[in-house]
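Why does residue order matter? Because the sequence determines the fold. Keep that principle in mind as you read this record.
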Amino acid sequence: MSMFVLGIITTLIILIMFGRIRFSSSSPERALNRRLSEGPYILAVGGGTGLSTLLRGIKSFTRNITAVVAVTDEGGSSGRIRNEWGMLPPGDVRNCIAALAENDSELRRILDFRFDRGELAGHSLGNLLLLAVTEMSGDFSKAVEIMNHLLSIRGRVLPVTTEGITLMGKTDDGLKVKGELSISEHGKDLHEIWVEPLDAKPLPEVLNAVDDADVILLGPGSLFTSVIPNLLLEDFANKLRTSNVPSIYICNLMTQPDETQGMNIVQHLEWVSAALGKTPDFIIANSDTIPEDIVERYEAEGAKPLYLDDEQRQSIKSMGCECVETGIMTVIDSPKEGRVLRHDSRKLASTIFKITRRIYD
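Structure:
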């Protein structure tokens, strides 16, 4: 990438810094800021679309949010930046920063803008902004911190580590697989999963966030490539495991082709519990009926709805975990994908804070 391009990106950063929206200091605005500042401290762990969807909802209830994001992405723009520049993949971090911004819809449009020609084809503007700030600051975590402050987000986003880690796994028939893409392709056959280097360390701020938290959220997101990678850092898993703070696992709405194909909710929970070293205190599962046309389209791709039945409820109860079944899904119209299934940010956040109030009231 030329210095000319980096110069343009730097200029964009300055424009964002001096041109960002200034919110009024009216009484309603001050009251809102006070209410959000008094909200519970949330530690949300994950990656991908699921975590950013969750953050858009919970920022309406509190600004005391720390999002810890996986850094094992290998695909698309993030993968190219990782391979060409040796930088940690910025995509999931970018999505979470945009989700926590005050005006997230407009900011997301800017950060998600994707170039379609030339040497930048396929890259998103947000990824390049993070690359530019990393180059200027000399450190990815510092760049993320700068972007947190630059965009005045509600909370903060942290990469789980600044070390270059790689997902590793072994299937039931002994095949060793390496990298996020390969893990995703063989997820349904995995027997074991870990990261290399084995002694990779989480950021100190990540560990401190556990001490500050009132509740710990795991997911939603791809089981083996978004949620579990964070838990494979031993020091982080140990910190979470020994914490007395209640933890909530948010289950996906559907299985994922290859990665979790054929798995039920109990099997998802068992994998998370094994990586964490204990069973989460709560699990949130969707109870809404998914429209038949959506089910048919997803099933054609190898994905099926995730619902609880009586046998699974009993299994989860025997693990010491409380089931919370509620309607948390929505269908959105995507320009690229058509009608797609997503967690409803507001409904999911409302469910989480109902659980939190019940715990602490």
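The longest strand covers residues 190-196.
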